[in-house]
Specification:
219 residues; mainly beta; Porin; 8-stranded antiparallel beta barrel; 5% helix
Amino acid sequence: MKKLFLTIAFLMSFVSAAYSQVSMGLTVSLADLDTALSDDIDNNGSIDTTKDVSNDVVFGSIFLERALDNGLTIGLDFIPFEAEFESRSTTQTSRTTSTTDTSGTNKGTADVSNHLTLYLQPTKELDNGSKLFATLGYVKADVESLVQSVSSTNKTVEQTLEGFKIGVGTKRDIGANGFFKLELNRTDYDDISATTSNSTKVTADIDATVLSLSVGRSF
């Protein structure tokens, strides 16, 4: 992830002089995470149980962007800390011997770190001085999944999470060099999965609908 961030930053700093403005700032976001969970108990390709989970998360990020003279902006958004994107628990009774049942709770969490978004924002200026923009972005992050099962040993799986982001928003200048942006966007992440020691495969399909407020300064 660090290598990817440095590579993109290098490309942004050496692009054509057609870029007219550099900006940076902070973003606060409220995310509604919708996750479709499925269990394949014996990992044979068939789905045994499904469950839809919704989780609200508030997080902050920092961004760096450069604007073209033709109204196109390219930028990076980075969440500099770890966030729990998903947490699930279900009760289960498992037969450990021919005569003994063990009851307990299956748990699963997905902690995301190094969340980086590379985005493009075509922008149109309105007569009242505000601007409308659309967002198209590529998302990449590290995810650590922990699966705890009453019928198997706990397992931690480290993976790469990728996705694509689309959104719309408005931008307004504040004073000589400041601005704020309000954006509604949606990110469709790739599926992530983990398999326990007893061959139960748990898969999560995460989608995020996010309302963001950004405050920045241009240089």
